[in-house]
Amino acid sequence: MNLPLLKVDEIGDALELLIDAPVDSTTLRRIYAKSGGLVKIACAMAEVATIEGRLKLLDGSWVAVDELWSPGLAPMIRSKGLSLDDTDSTALEELALAGLTSAENAIDLIGQDTLRRLVSRGVVAIEPSGANHWVTVTPPLLAEMLSRQSVIPAMTSKSSVRALSGLPGAATGLRPQRELRIGPFTPQLLRGLTERRLKVLGETQAAWDAEPSGATALAYISVLVNEGASPEKVLTFIDQASDLIKSREHRAWIRVWEARVRAYGMGDLERGIELLTAVDDLGEFHGLVDAARIRMQCDLGVIPPDAEQLLGGANRLPLTVQHEMQWALVALLIAKGHLTRAEQTLALISSSDPNVFSVRVQAFSSLIALFQGDYKRASRLALSGLERAADDLDPEMIRFYIFVISLIVALRGQGVDVARIRETLTGLGEKPLFPQVSYLGIYVCSIIIGKGTRAELTHLESELEQLNTRESTMPGTSRAWAKARLVAAAGATEQAADLCWDDALRLLARGGRLAAAFVGVQSLKHEFRKDRAAAVASWLSDIDSEVLDAALAAVIAADGEDARAMFEVLPRLVASGQIQSAVEGYRQLHAFPETRADATLSARAQTDESQFLASLEHGGRDLLRPGTTMELLTPREAEVARLIAAGLTNRQIQKELVLSIRTVENHRAHVMRKLGAKTRQETLEAIRAWMSAE
Hints:
With 694 residues, the protein is mainly alpha-helical.
């Protein structure tokens, strides 16, 4: 298995000779991504997949009908890592999970000496290409084998988000809580997306030119919308093609696309809804228009009170109508917080055609699992789903999965460097014409999870405001949530709480109860008010969301300084992936009068916290900070903070920095406010935790 790597067409030729028929293009790309261009791995995958029924011959081509990896390949892969010591084995795993990466990034990840050792052992290869050098594990499929040993299955294809293995948890019975890290788009993925976009656009345009019809017109419109053509160009083509639209189904679809272009692309929601309301007789295909209208109102407007009733009677309609109505119902139920029913509807869609809809079903399932409090399942589904979307070069699903993963990272309380976020946003390209919800959500979550200067985050917020996209009733897409983070970081926690609360009331009025409760909880985290907590509790009574139930219980316990209630809710926070909130909960628990006065409670708190932190990657150092990050301290405040941590008094800091005593006192007050610390000891602990993470 020597380099250089083969091109995708060369792999395709080899596979065709091996299994006596061509492999369809989507399946071939998936094999190529997983084999890293190594023909022996690709052939082994194809042979095992045909034997196990993962590849099936359909219409003269081999097509993947299931995951391509088989445990039968593990012995061939595992032997590559058995002779390494623990240090090199860990480094090999990190490289394997990173996929194809530059030599510079590989050195940052594992160190130059370790990289040289692995190359000399023949388990890692460096391939020059232009001015860069690319590093990959040989074979790349070692990532698959290693990921199946991790708590959160890692992405192994060359796509945009990686779960990197960390330190094992202590022997406490707690399973390790691994970080989710956002990595850059690789050249292969970007090139593949570009090639696919051009190919599909060319094919659909050629089909229209060769045989103008309703079917070829709709296919071309769909591609124009998906590839980000201007609204004017799409509407012009719709006008040209309208005379060819004869069937009721095609007439329904062209009306749907025109409404979407006007509502999502041109911001004219009223016109979009009007187009989907005043329609000619479409017979059994009228459900397509109803589904599109309700989905549009969920995304951009007010959810109609009769929406569930309209979407509930699809059983005897054509299959394509049933599916569209069911997808709209899933979005509606999630917006309302009826997550169990949304999951049941997804099961109906999946049972009707599991191969066609599996990636999309998995995307919504990961979002539902996240709010149900099943953090591990949500992470597993999102990571593996993004791998499949990247293998299939599906930009819509790539965006959706990145949104879900960003939301998971935000709820966990992790930070991501703004530079890395920039790479991800650049890789996503321009705002799509439709759908836009996930693209908006990625921007919102980027501000929540961003680690950088105030100027960098403010610039991200400015870009978010310029998106000119109406806010959705989908949780995690609230501009107010992002703005409140920056306002709170500047010390205006009351203003931050009001921003979130006002937005929660707007979302509630629109029918988005889950998003309203989500932003309402964020408001309480900025500033607790009993009347608002009671309102959020009433909203949650009609919502089956463990992640929000646990978050609300935690802020109520903190406000009441109720140690026993906090002990009860902390395991729920951990299980639902709210790690930052759990870290903060333990800090608050130690300060409760009840805990300080009771030696037994105090000892239990210390033991539980030690076990919890030992289960986190890096001992949780990256999360031992308040929600308003230390990165937002000014350079002078950071300088004062480090001197405080060194034990210097205000007078000593004054002499060290040649400042007035009043200026030093002001800087100390700013540091304490931004860190959310009230006492000298809390300030020392917060500063030292930040310095350790740095």
